[in-house]
Design a protein that fits this description.
The protein has 147 residues and is α+β, with helices and mostly antiparallel strands. The protein contains eight helices and five strands, in the order βααββαααααββα. The N terminus is likely disordered.
């Protein structure tokens, strides 16, 4: 559904296209509104599709937090090491050449972002990737970086 708000100039007899270019155009799609000031769209349907493609703000926040977690090289190394399977903090320390306290701190952040999970085996804590999505994110990031 498309609605255009007219300006007083339209009432004064200016052409509709000029008024459209100067007016605020509002495209409403699924309770979202796109406000375009002084811009005439060549393909309003394409803009509506673009608006529909943008997820809810809450989902965007969670997704950007995931990318923020992946943006740290130490956390990325830890996640890359966990691609092979479950590892304890000591194993991750050796694999990443990072101190035990730093590994533990980064694992806590990764758990908070639901990128890793922990399983207790007696007194040992074994860490693994939360799911295959995380493995895919790592693989895609590396593939993209290699291009």
């Amino acid at each position: 559904m498309e609605s255009k708000t007219a300006t007083p100039r339209q009432a004064q007899g200016q052409s509709a296209s000029k008024v459209q270019a100067e007016a605020t155009m509002q495209v409403r799609t699924q309770a979202k509104t796109l406000n375009c000031v002084g811009h005439e769209h060549e393909d309003v349907a394409l803009v509506e599709k673009a608006l529909e493609a943008i997820p809810a703000d809450e989902l965007i926040l969670v997704a950007t937090e995931i990318f923020s977690a992946l943006a740290d090289s130490t956390r990325f190394r830890i996640l890359s090491a966990l691609v092979v399977g479950e590892l304890c903090v000591g194993d991750l320390q050796c694999a990443t050449s990072v101190s035990q306290s730093a590994v533990s701190h980064q694992l806590r952040l990764l758990r908070d972002k639901r990128l890793v999970k922990v399983r207790r085996d007696g007194q040992h804590a074994l860490y693994s990737l939360a799911d295959d999505h995380v493995k895919s994110l790592i693989a895609l990031a590396l593939e993209h970086a290699a291009e």
